[in-house]
Amino acid sequence: MTAFKSNCNLKIFNKREDIHHHLNNLRSAGKSIGFVPTMGALHAGHLSLIEAARNKTDVVVCSIFVNPTQFNDKKDLENYPRTLKEDLEKLRAFKCDILFLPEVEEMYNSSEIWKISLGDLDKILEGKIRPGHYQGVTQIVNKLFDTLKPDFAFFGQKDYQQVMVISHMVRKMKIDVKIVVCPIIREMDGLAMSSRNVYLSPEERIQSLALYHALTLAQNLFETQSIVETKKRVRSFLDSCPGIETEYFEIFNARTFKPLNSKNAEVTIALIAAKIGKIRIIDNMYLNKGNSH
Ligand code: AMP
Question: Rounded to the nearest 5 degrees, what angle is found at the Cα of 36, between the Cα atoms of 25 and 281?
Fold first, then answer.
């Protein structure tokens, strides 16, 4: 396994059929496949997923595809950062084996319809604020799973609701893949890394720390206060932060992904979304300190 990796350069595929065939051969040779789906503009958060995949599987496949169907805002899609040259360097430095880099036409034909029932998951929090977003996410991830047939797929806790949605789809459609959730990678000062952070002005970059501070405040309050009191105090902290337009701050049971009003969950998570200027930021943190991140 090690010999295979150290001799291996990054192979790039643009066509579904070609990568499908190549991975089938590797699978037949007994290699396990680890998959990291991304939209590019790679940062240390993405690279931590590559590293997790490298530690667990024989062949690491990353995809870069800015998926149009998950953008409910056309401007956001147009403005999404694209940094392919730097991405390739990072993937090589992190010893990713294979990159899947399809064009939109390779993944979609115009007559396609996709609808999966996600229960409450696309009616609350991100699902409510970004209508259709999780339909688009499941549509593309299902296609990627179907093309690559990975043994393991690696997702960031940063998009916690997305992890819930993908896990739901995998169970519902009986897809043969194991989902691995990796911790949130943060900047030194606590801001969760995100491809969109590059668009924050210097002033907004400072203001954006309010999200991390709100989550750490919630974690501290949670030790001694009720959930109702914790939510109240964190929301009032957020109201006092300049430049922050809070969309939600909620405390959920991390397993069932239902709102909590009393401390009766094994694992509790606080989730936040806010706008700073035009940039939307989401973040989350487990409140039981043993779970960290
Ligand atoms: P994206 O390119 O934004 O679609 O993200 C691709 C994957 O990277 C998703 O599974 C994200 O949850 C994950 N990711 C994004 N930011 C971070 C971060 N700061 N730490 C860990 N994983 C992340």
Answer: 165
- Please give the residue range of the domain that contains residue 237: 195-286
Which amino acid is residue 126, in one-letter code? E
Measured in Å, residue 229 CA sits from the centre of ligand 1 at 31
Domain boundary among 182, 214, 245: 182
Q: Note whether 166 and 83 are same-domain residues.
A: yes
Structure confidence by residue, pLDDT tens digits, 40-80: 999 999 999 999 999 999 999 999 999 999 998 899 999 99
Dist. CA 70 → ligand 1 center (Å) = 15
State the CATH number of the domain containing residue 112: 3.40.50.620
Residue 292 has pLDDT above 60, yes or no: no
For residues 255 and 197, give the distance between their C-alpha atoms in angstroms, rounded to a whole number: 29
Ligand 1: residue whose CA is nearest its atom 14: 156
